[in-house]
Design a protein that fits this description.
Deoxyribonuclease I, Chain A, alpha+beta, 5 helices
């Protein structure tokens, strides 16, 4: 299975480019964020013609997530337990959740396409909302993997966090003054890993950004950030046979400000393949 995640920054503006990438790169499952449309406005036909089933979750021109898969998607969910909502400067579980999470099972893998809240600014209510959202996500991971450690679970998408200083090359994003790099956000990311998730791309692609602001020539100067991830349970991570960040998708006509992140999965074990050569 080849699984990819991509913050597409408007599916309707880039549908041809996105479908072309999925087909050209033989992607089996594509998780998308910031589709920026209602579910009924999603360009399902373009994906269907390319052989994909799609589940989409969106309310308006903001946020929105989707998953396209060559195989049917099962157990589709649009939120995880305890996921807070945000409205009028307030947040909590008593407020309807935004379209920021979509979970489904495909090929035995539980995949979540996630668009983590931006945080906007330190001290802003949206920053506290982001931290509560991440804590609810951590609790879900802890509960889910606590009940089934052998579950191939993948949390993929735009996390809006640069976990290390090396993941931030944007001079406008300054520790102590900016979101995405604050200690509390990085602690929240580390808490997801402590709950049983692994950054499955970094061991194979140790450097590289996944996002460049449209402004100030950030992409030509390579002043980007690594904020898009494929986090997986150990059962998922053990099956990762390859990974890549497709930087060139930031080039060309009307690109998204993010690029796809991809992993290749092989869930077969040596004993499953009698023709596998013996290695001494």
């Amino acid at each position: 299975m080849r699984l990819a995640t991509w913050n597409v920054n408007s599916i309707r503006a880039r549908v041809d480019r996105i479908v072309d990438f999925a087909v050209r790169e033989s992607v089996d499952v594509l998780a998308m964020q910031e589709i920026k449309c209602k579910a009924e406005q999603f360009p399902f036909d373009a994906f269907a013609e390319a052989g994909y089933h799609v589940e989409a979750h969106g309310f308006s021109q903001w946020n929105g997530v989707a998953i396209a898969s060559r195989e049917p998607l099962a157990d589709v969910r649009t939120s995880f337990p305890g996921m807070p909502g945000f409205a009028s400067g307030k947040f909590g579980t008593d407020i309807a959740p935004e379209a920021r999470a979509l979970g489904a099972t495909v090929g035995g893998v539980e995949v979540w396409s996630l668009y983590v809240p931006n945080g906007r600014a330190l001290g802003d209510p949206h920053y506290d909302y982001k931290l509560e959202w991440l804590e609810a996500l951590r609790a879900y991971v802890d509960t889910t993997l606590g009940a089934r450690r052998d579950l191939p679970l993948a949390l993929v998408g735009d996390f809006n966090i640069a976990p290390t200083d090396a993941d931030n090359g944007d001079p406008a994003v300054v520790p102590g003054f900016s979101t995405h790099v604050s200690p509390l956000e990085r602690e929240a990311f580390a808490a997801l890993e402590a709950a049983g998730l692994v950054d499955t791309v970094r061991p194979l692609v140790p450097t590289g950004y996944t996002y460049w602001d449209y402004k100030r020539l950030r992409f030509p100067r390579n002043e980007g950030m690594r904020i898009d991830f494929i986090l997986g349970s150990h059962a998922f991570a053990d099956a990762v046979a390859g990974a890549s960040i497709h930087r060139d998708e930031r080039k060309g006509e009307a690109p998204s400000d993010h690029v796809p992140v991809v992993v290749d999965l092989d869930f077969t074990s040596p004993e499953d393949d009698d023709d596998r050569p013996m290695i001494w």
